[in-house]
Design the sequence.
């Protein structure tokens, strides 16, 4: 891997990791567009690759928040149970969608999240 690409990867990781740690998001909202725009991955590969990247971010944040006493572990387990089912369904659907459909659905979710963050 060329040093320019390594630097690009590192910067994308730093920015999205920072946002993930600060806001509890940033994995999908930042890393997916980063992978597509700067690293030229197709949408399906970007979304799938982002899952592993988000997992690593999550482990770091989980450790920090867990040791600081800010984690509601029982609640997290309950919500995670549903997340497993949703993750399986989403992964199966991703394989069936076109790149254009993936972009539209992702964009709609980004707009909804933005409106929610600004107004609610």
Sequence:
């Amino acid at each position: 891997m060329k040093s320019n690409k390594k630097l690009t990867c590192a910067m994308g990781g730093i920015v999205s990791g920072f946002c993930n740690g600060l806001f509890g998001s940033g994995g999908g909202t930042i890393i997916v567009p980063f992978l597509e725009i700067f690293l030229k991955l197709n949408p399906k590969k970007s979304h799938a690759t982002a899952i592993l990247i988000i997992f690593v971010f999550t482990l770091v944040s989980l450790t920090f928040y867990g040791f600081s006493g800010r984690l509601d572990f029982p609640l997290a387990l309950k919500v995670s149970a549903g997340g497993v089912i949703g993750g399986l369904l989403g992964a199966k659907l991703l394989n069936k969608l076109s790149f254009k459909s993936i972009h539209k659905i992702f964009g709609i979710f980004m707009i909804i999240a933005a409106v929610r963050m600004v107004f609610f």
